[in-house]
Amino acid sequence: MSHNSLLSSQNSSDSEDFEGKRSAHNVMERQRRNDLKNSLHILRDSLPSLETQERAPKVVILAHATQYMHELHNADLKLSAELRHVKSKNVQLKERLEQLQAQVSYMSVTM
User: Fold this and answer.
1) DSSP character for 47?
2) Measured between alpha carbons, how far is residue 19 from residues 12, 16, 33 in Å?
3) 23-61: per-residue pLDDT in tens?
4) Where are the domains of the chain?
5) What's phi and psi for 8, nearest 5 deg?
6) How much is the pTM?
7) DSSP-derived 3-state class of residue 52
8) What is the mean pLDDT of residues 67-77?
9) Which of 77, 89, 81, 47 is nearest to 64 (CA)?
10) What is the DSSP letter of 33?
């Protein structure tokens, strides 16, 4: 085999390898874009402010998601504070109940 035909064969093989790698990369990139698109649709549909919109730009979806997360966080803080208050009130009421039960027991013994 001559030197030129050997180089030509190697160049052809390199070109096929490059095309194969490029094709595989294009497929992976297309899949990545589709996954991102589907994830953004799921996120959009999870947001009360956007769930009825068929289309929304990515930046709008992300801005609404950030705002919704802040709203949920604030609601969680408020509910946690309310829960602590209710638990404290419950402890006070149980203590008062025990006091009243002790008084009733004392009164029934002394009568």
Assistant:
1) -
2) 11, 5, 21
3) 999 999 999 999 999 999 999 999 999 999 999 999 999
4) 1-46, 57-111
5) -60, -45
6) 0.68
7) coil
8) 98
9) 47
10) H
